[in-house]
Amino acid sequence: MTTQSSTQTIIIFDIDGVIRDVSGSYRRALADTVEYFTNNAYRPTSTDIDNLKSEGIWNNDWEASQELIHRYFEQTGKSRHQNQINYETIVAFFQSRYRGTDPDNWNGYICDEPLLLQSKYLENLTNAGIAWGFFSGATRASATYVLEKRLNIKPSVLIAMEDAPGKPDPTGLFAAVRHLEENNSKISNSATVLYVGDTVADMYTVEKARSQDSKRKWLGVGVLPPHVQKLPSRRDAYAELLIDAGAEVAFCNVQDLTPARVQALVGE
């Protein structure tokens, strides 16, 4: 793809499972949290978490933790009304595992998250005339940590948990695109938007964006998070799940979405 006088393509990236592997951090903290608040009676497996997220509405891991706690106690005959565990208490415990115990110098699971792309990849997109930014359900502090401290980039656009409703509401996706357009006068107002994510909720977000704004082309691109790639059967099933949810294609790594593949998807 050659650089054009006007930018015809925008890529908005999710972060968790796309930019960083969160199987040993967010997901581990989620499992820790559920185990703790069920009095060590239930620790959700990776498949349990995937099954919950496949419902397309549990993108927020704090809420996902609470939901799995509720469902466990419902199986024991205890209604949600009877379960008096405070949501903020759940969040605080989760964060003590994910960020750690030192609020100034994080020492939790986040410190060991493997990165799934190199900053050079983003440079290649820019050189190809592709605008890019981020829309994630992660907190701004967490997203900034991985982008600025780990990847050493300072993105012009980052829409985080605090900035928009949770997915699959497309408000955050619209905001990311709008901010990119405000920062770059070369972006065409009819530029195709690709949203790259690893969950059903991400793909539903694209579907909702398409239904609310038909003036431009919206495409969902799936990325398989590392934890589902250990077994070919699970990898293939997860890819099919994303495709069924609306993804045009599902890659094993975000860097497989090269400028040439972008061009093929956009149809330029």
Averaged pLDDT, please?
94
* Structural class by SSE content: alpha/beta
Helical coverage, percent range: 40-55%
**Strand/helix succession:** EHHHHHEHEHEHEHEH
| Continuous helix count | 10
Spatial strand sequence of the major β-sheet: 3-2-1-4-5-6
Strand content: 5-15%
Report the uncertain regions: none
Please summarize the sheet with the most strands.
Answer: 6 strands, parallel
**What would you report as the Rg, rounded to the nearest angstrom?**
19 Å
Shape: globular
The total of beta strands comes to 6
Terminal-residue CA separation: 9 Å
How does this structure look, described?
The chain has 268 residues and is α/β, with parallel strands linked by helices. Helices cover 43% and strands 14% of the residues. Strands 3-2-1-4-5-6 form a six-stranded parallel β-sheet, with helices on both faces. Strand 2, helix 6 (140-150) and strand 3 (158-159) form a beta-alpha-beta unit. The longest helix has 15 residues, at 61-75. The model has no long low-confidence stretch (mean pLDDT 94).
Short description:
The chain is α/β, with parallel strands linked by helices and 268 residues long. It has ten helices and six strands; from the N terminus they run βαααααβαβαβαβαβα.
Descriptive keywords:
alpha/beta; 268 residues
Topology at a glance:
Elements: E1 7-13, H1 26-37, H2 46-53, H3 61-75, H4 87-98, H5 119-127, E2 130-135, H6 140-150, E3 158-159, H7 171-183, E4 187-197, H8 200-212, E5 218-223, H9 232-244, E6 247-251, H10 259-266
Parallel strand pairs: 1-2, 1-4, 2-3, 4-5, 5-6
